[in-house]
Design goal:
Elements: H1 3-7, E1 22-26, E2 32-33, E3 36-37, H2 43-54, E4 58-63, H3 83-96, H4 104-111, E5 114-115, E6 127-130, H5 136-139, H6 144-155, E7 159-163, E8 186-187, H7 192-197, H8 208-214, E9 218-219, E10 229-232, E11 235-238, H9 244-256
Parallel strand pairs: 1-4, 1-6, 4-5, 6-7, 7-11, 8-9
Antiparallel strand pairs: 2-3, 10-11
Length: about 260
């Protein structure tokens, strides 16, 4: 007689549970861009992080270098510091003060990101999400590990997503046929007029909107600082920080389809 019968439990419990959807969120590890202090725009990790957790995803936070993820101080300014971002940062302060009631998982993810090239994207990863912040303009560009991760997942039909400056990591990538990943795809990303508004157009390696168009992407946008998300097959992109939540929702829908 089985242990399940002895305990009065249904035999279905003897089968393994369904595999959790695994998403790797990639954040910058760069602290500056051409002498300008920068890092991760915290909203673009925090908001999707909690959305993915609510959806039951296994979330891995990675960066090109691994280790601590620097936060752009401007992303904690008035009007930008969302409740989710505050939850992230308050949990970090609690950790520093050794307070027991904090979101330990978030603290660990932010303080000890996994080095990107240590992850096997060919096995067990269902999606990748590139967070923004101007730091990406330093370490997402010409990054072999990021290029390999994106191309591997895209070729497998898995979800590739990026928000705001996260799409800075896309121009280096190609489809399996060798054409640019964004060619013929409806995409968005930080708008050129938004870049000019923050006065960093002379610091970035390229203007993202112009680069996506140059590579044959069908670029779309909303008015500056308004939410815009594009989904084209297994590619999901968001325009700016205001698009963080909608971009995460679109990823959840794409992975669940």
């Amino acid at each position: 007689i089985s242990i399940f019968a002895l305990l009065g439990l249904p035999a279905v419990l003897s089968t393994s549970t369904a595999k959790m959807t695994k998403i790797v969120m990639v954040a910058t590890a760069a602290t500056e861009l051409a002498g300008h202090p920068t890092g991760l725009w915290i909203e673009e990790l925090a908001v999707p992080y909690y959305k993915f957790k609510e959806a039951g995803f296994e979330v891995v936070v990675a960066s090109p270098a691994g280790g601590p993820i620097p936060i752009d101080a401007n992303s904690m300014g008035e009007g930008f510091f969302t409740d989710e971002a505050k939850k992230f940062m308050v949990s970090c302060l609690c950790e520093l003060r050794r307070v027991s009631s904090h979101d330990g998982a978030a603290v660990g993810a932010l303080s000890h990101s996994v080095k990107l090239d240590s992850i096997d994207f060919a096995s067990g990863v269902d999606a990748i999400f590139l967070c923004g912040g101007h730091g990406t303009c330093t370490d997402f560009v010409d990054c072999p590990a990021l290029k390999s991760a994106i191309e591997t997942l895209y070729a497998a039909g898995s979800c590739v997503a990026a928000v705001c400056h996260g799409p800075t990591g896309l121009p280096q990538c190609n489809k399996p046929d060798g054409t640019p990943l964004v060619q013929g795809k409806v995409v968005t990303g930080f708008k050129d007029s938004e870049e000019i508004a923050v006065a960093l157009q002379d610091k970035v390696p390229f203007m993202l909107e112009a680069k996506l168009k140059e590579q044959g992407g069908k670029y779309e946008s909303a008015d500056d600082w308004n939410s815009k998300v594009c989904t084209d097959g297994n590619l999901v992109t968001g325009q700016n920080p205001q698009s963080s939540e909608a971009c995460a929702v679109a990823v959840i829908a794409a992975v669940s389809a």
